[in-house]
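Milestone 3.1: sequence recovery, worked example.
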């Protein structure tokens, strides 16, 4: 079993949830996924993962930032967000990751364990294309945006 990063404090957890919500809100309508029932499941401890999925490990550390499961026939998807890993990445990488996971929702009718690497390539390529097509919103990547009032 991979060693997970330290579990976040309640305050750290709330901050990471806020970061995720910001990019989900920014992209869900732009990508026309507002017609789907997409559930975002923030997880502070992999044992709490609703899918039972355990993040992959590289050098004994978590590598997976998010994981997606989707049922295209009922237009439902669940994106599990591993908050201790999210804490370690920049806003730019987090934004690309959110889009990448949204691409998995669209790719889900064609998803197959036989073509997982190809699906990852397509999801990443599409995410990077959408990032390039949309100008960066400097306010979204401004740390002051997250400060509590």
């Amino acid at each position: 079993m991979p060693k997970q990063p330290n579990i976040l404090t309640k305050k750290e957890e709330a901050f990471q949830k806020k970061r995720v919500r910001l990019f989900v809100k920014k992209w869900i309508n732009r990508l026309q996924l507002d017609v789907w029932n997409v559930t975002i499941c923030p997880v502070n401890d992999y044992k709490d993962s609703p899918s039972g999925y355990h993040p992959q490990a590289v050098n004994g550390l978590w590598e997976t930032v998010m994981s997606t499961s989707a049922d295209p026939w009922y237009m439902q998807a669940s994106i599990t967000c591993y908050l201790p890993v999210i804490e370690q990445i920049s806003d730019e990488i987090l934004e690309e990751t959110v889009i990448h996971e949204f691409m998995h929702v669209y790719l889900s009718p064609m998803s197959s364990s036989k073509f997982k690497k190809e699906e990852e390539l397509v999801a990443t390529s599409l995410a990077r294309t959408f990032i390039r097509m949309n100008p960066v919103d400097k306010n979204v990547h401004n740390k002051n945006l997250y400060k509590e009032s």
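DSSP finds four helices and five strands in the chain. The chain has one domain: 10-136.
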